[in-house]
Amino acid sequence: MEENTVVDSTPTALPPAPGADRYRSLDFADTTAALPAGRRYDLLATPESAMRWLAAHGLTAPDVKLYEVCAQRMRTLRGHVRALFAARVDGTAPPEQSLRAVNEALTAVPTAPLLAWDGARGPRRVQAHPTDQAVGHALAALAADAADLLTGRDAGLLAACGSAPCDRFLVRTHGRRHWCSTRCGDRARAARARRTPE
Question: Which H helix or E strand runs over 159?
């Protein structure tokens, strides 16, 4: 990150990009983005903001305490997911360490609901989320979601926002739209109008 970049961890980020309603990993990748005037936001900058993001996306209970080491694990995986998305968009080979990191997150914890026995209700399937593995489970779910996006029917629709300096990702929903938000689209149109001679 450049020295003059100002990071904002307050939840004043852009609205979710197209496709974020279907892919939590897309919203996860977009928890950081470049903004005009050398600013950037990071919704995972602190353990508290990372916890809010996880809880808002149904990936852990709101009462789970998150520590900096956990927030750092989230930021690290986010960087790898972003690298894989960028490689897909650019049509290039992804970094080997990013593939390895996502695969490690996929296999670090059991993601299948386990069989449990309740004396009153009998057998049932439960998702084990011990507090010490809450972030591991969340990262596994996000890694699986990213793998689904990269290999599924929407993989060819994954795009990078076309309005500099924004570096968010989106799933194109119609036409050639390459903007993650109305604000970015307006900024791109204004820049194009300034370049067009009268």
Answer: strand 158-160
Amino acid at 144: A
Strands (E), 19-143: 32-35, 39-42, 114-118, 122-126
Per residue in 136-181, pLDDT (tens digit) is 989 999 999 999 999 999 999 999 998 888 899 999 987 666 878 7
Number of folded domains in the chain? 1
98 domain residue, yes or no: yes
Strand partners, 8: 41
Tell me what pLDDT residue 3 has.
43
Expressed in percent and rounded to 5, the helix, strand and coil fractions of the chain are 45, 15, 40
Q: Is residue 64 part of a domain?
A: yes
The domain in which residue 34 lies consists of 6-113+130-156
User: What are residue 39's phi and psi, to 5 degrees?
Assistant: -100, 160
Could you read off the pLDDT of 47-59 as tens digits, one per residue? 999 999 999 999 9
Distance spanning both ends of the chain, measured CA to CA = 38
The verdict on residue 37 lying in a domain is: yes
